[in-house]
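hey
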């Protein structure tokens, strides 16, 4: 069990009370005193802080942790003194583009294909981050257990039009709002669109045996826990020591 699975278990086994005194701003909360388990509660608060990102609430800025359709946050100075965690539903983070146009580069596509062929197969569960309109599936054919994530609505609309059989496996969402502990291979052909919070979520939520391959035509910044590989055709952040 990784920490994201542990967090899901914490959420499922705690009571979430509706904040009646703030019904005009609907949200829920759980209390440390409900189960009287200080260490487990402190761990959860520490975890959501370490895996959070900044978000706005009117004129104030808080750090929110996103998981399974909810965001979580606390308002205390330290996890040790925290006795209440809030949660609220959130609207999916997506970009409502006018028209999505996929970009093709024969040299980039061919170089990436040669790498992916060594790691992608029908037996593995593949998650494609920033999947666009399905460019990965045009590169690599042997992918039965495929899932795609993108926050560009028009891109996913084009993908679904071309592959209606995959509709239930394509998620309109920001990469950093999901977790990836069930995936065997996590790929992106557009890693330059991922910010550090997105990459952090991928690294922290993946299972230890998962392969991560985040490709970009441009330059990528190093990230802790991933190796940076540069070739004439691409940059790559990966868990692999060599390709």
């Amino acid at each position: 069990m990784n920490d994201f699975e542990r967090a899901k278990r914490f959420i499922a086994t705690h009571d979430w009370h509706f904040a009646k005194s703030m019904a005009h701003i609907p949200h829920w909360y759980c209390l440390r005193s409900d189960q009287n388990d200080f260490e487990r509660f402190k761990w959860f608060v520490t975890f959501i802080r370490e895996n959070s990102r900044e978000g706005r609430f009117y004129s104030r800025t808080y750090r929110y942790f996103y998981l399974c359709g909810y965001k979580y946050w606390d308002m205390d100075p330290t996890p040790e003194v925290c006795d209440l965690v809030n949660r609220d539903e959130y609207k999916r983070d997506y970009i409502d583009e006018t028209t999505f146009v996929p970009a093709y580069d024969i040299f980039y596509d061919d170089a990436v294909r040669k790498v992916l062929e060594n790691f992608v197969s029908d037996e593995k569960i593949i998650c494609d981050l920033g999947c666009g309109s399905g460019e990965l599936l045009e590169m690599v054919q042997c992918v039965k257990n495929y899932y795609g994530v993108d926050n560009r609505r028009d891109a996913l609309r084009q993908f679904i039009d071309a592959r209606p059989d995959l509709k239930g496996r394509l998620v309109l969402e920001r990469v950093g709002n999901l977790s990836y502990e069930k995936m065997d291979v996590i790929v992106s052909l557009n890693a330059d669109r991922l910010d550090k919070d997105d990459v952090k979520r991928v690294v922290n939520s993946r299972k230890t045996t998962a392969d991560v391959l985040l490709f970009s035509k441009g330059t990528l910044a190093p990230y802790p826990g991933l190796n940076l590989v540069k070739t004439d055709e691409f940059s790559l952040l990966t868990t692999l020591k060599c390709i």
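The chain has two domains: 3-89, 106-238. The mean pLDDT is 90.
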